[in-house]
Amino acid sequence: MKSPWFIVVIFLLFRSSLFPQADFGKRTLFIRKATSPIIIDGLGDDAAWAYCTPADQFIQQFPFDTSLAKSQTIVKMTYDDKAIYILAECFNAKPGKYVVESMKRDFNIKRNDCFNVYLDPFDDKLNGFVFGVNAYGAQREGLIENGGNFDPNLRWDNKWFSAVKRTPEKWIVEMKIPFKTIRYKYGINNWGINFTRSDQAINEISAWNKIPFNFNNASLAFTGTLAWDIPPRKAGVNISLIPYAIGGVNHDYIKDETRWLYNSGGDAKIAVTSSLNLDITGNPDFSQVDVDQQVTNLTRFSLFFPEQRQFFLENSDLFARFGFSRIRPFFSRRIGLRNGEQVPIIAGVRLSGKLSRKIRIGAMNIQTAGSSKLNVEAQNYSVGALQWQAFGRSNFGLIFVNRQGFEGWRISSTDYNRVVGIDYDLQSKDNKWQGKFFFHHSISPEKNFNAFAHASFLMYRDSRWTIMWNHEYVGKNYNAETGFVPRQFFYNGQTNQTIRLSYWRLEPMIEYSFYPKSKKLYRITPGIYNSYYADSVFAPTDVITSLYVNMDFYNTMYFSIGYNELYTNLLFPIDPSGTGSKVLPTGGYHYREAVFSFRSDARRRFTLNASGAFGSFFHGVKLTYGLTMNFRIQPWGNIGLTFSRDEILNPEPFDNIHLMLISPRIELTFRNNIFWTTFVQYNEQINNLNINSRFQWRFLPMSDLFIVYTDNFNTLDFSSKNRGVIIKFVYWLTI
Questions:
Q1: Euclidean distance between CA atoms 390 and 358, whole angstroms
Q2: What is the pLDDT of residues 615-634, one digit of tens each?
Q3: Which residues contact 375 (CB under 8 A, 6 or more apart)?
Q4: Which among 30, 270, 308, 330 is placed 20 to 30 Å from 413, CA to CA?
């Protein structure tokens, strides 16, 4: 099975050596110090702008990258001792109304008329920042990680300023990004820089420095050069104090208990250097004002929900990118949470950032208190990470994770877990080759044999071909207690025990894209994908083979149809529905299904996403269908509805299963700093109806007042489970 894929990889390497890579060109923008003050008002009439070199002649990135943009953009940049200033004039090829989702922060660039700037202060083509504004002034900012091959990490927030003015013919945005907001190193004359523009009226995305259309527009492989007349000075004292206070009340109707909630504490962010940051937290409040979106889970394994807590976000990829998405040696949501309950965190420190252009470091230490309610002792968590850039855009990484338990206030000699590992991330200069290889080993008080995990991933991608190979192996005794490895655990409902098993995974995939001569259909992509999970002797446990065809349209519409062959080997009797129905017996099950998905034109005020699957399911028949509808009240908000249903028909004596998840949602943005979101989640799988209503007032940049109301009901009789109100105040003070 390995040989054909090995031959393909050798062929592609040989092909790359025969045919030189296309020269996409690299532009340079010279930035000089402002000659006079600049006011951020969106007018662009300050005298200092007249002396700035323009960045113009934007090039199409979508739908194709072979011509100048129809809607052109002119950008100017300057700076003073405290901040970088950006002026963008965005001209409209088709004058008229603008397309925006709302004034909500961190918008989707493919659903908004917007302008974005991408900064790579070390010009390492791997890590950077994005700052964007849509045509009505909503902001987005994020961290660009791993070269920008995937969307930026928009959970990162920081202080910066912008203003917008609109006319039918063009819109103007002015931006001010303080040096204290970003991380850079004194003495570097050239930064990586790029700008992108989205004009939804003509469905065009353009860039200043050319980006091939088959790559993400946040890709740092294709940045131009920002040439400073004088390298930016050190930002000076850069300390942010972020205190919080929280109060509220919750009533548990099942226990008939009322609990008053109150807490206070805070974080501090200290720039040790302009590229190295120290985060300190004391008595942090990790109760979320955002609620995880529920999904129906018909698998035997845990679902992954991303980290959203502020303390862990900056340089989060330094810690979180080790391993794969489902073989993580470190997962920060393991800290401060146990079985969904909060464990008190006493304090934590976190140092992360760049030592030089090629070396990044991360070090973290967090101490939690014990909890008699949860029957856990105090724990100390330490993580160290080192990343060294080598061979162009690739890098080596080392990680060490340590969980140390206590007995009272004494360190326990038998309660600990450690993981050490090495990763290699491969990225070619032209971004066509991507890969990852790692080896991790856990250390526990016992069972350290076969306590390792390793994997390899390699992908080649150009405008037509996408070819991928992946292998994974997790040993039975690999124990990443502060990580996330759900496939390693199997639950025996008969004995109420969970066991560990070794597993292999092989995952090849190949796609080829056609570009028909059509005014409506943009691209047709047929593909084949296989995911083969096996036990330690390569006997299959979970297998899926997919044949599919994806179709992308010029108007952003999308349609996909496919066929899946599946196999599951049940080691223990289980109830896959998770509803307490009659369990299925052990053994191997072959089943198959036809699937489809559809997305309507995302630029319209009313949008529709639909998906469905029909086929066999273990020894029954399953029909799954779902809809997501949204109506945009431009620019003030959205009214949406998400609906999914699973119908599982089983032969006697097994029960038929009917599971429904329905979630209406209202998002209103009265101004770009006042938000109100209300949504309902009706989930038949867990018999719960959740109502969550959140009001947010951003009274100053990065300073918020939240008022959150939650209510939970039992869907069987609609009796109340619990109800609560929380008020949270967060203030961000920069010194």
A1: 8
A2: 999 989 999 999 999 999 98
A3: none
A4: 330
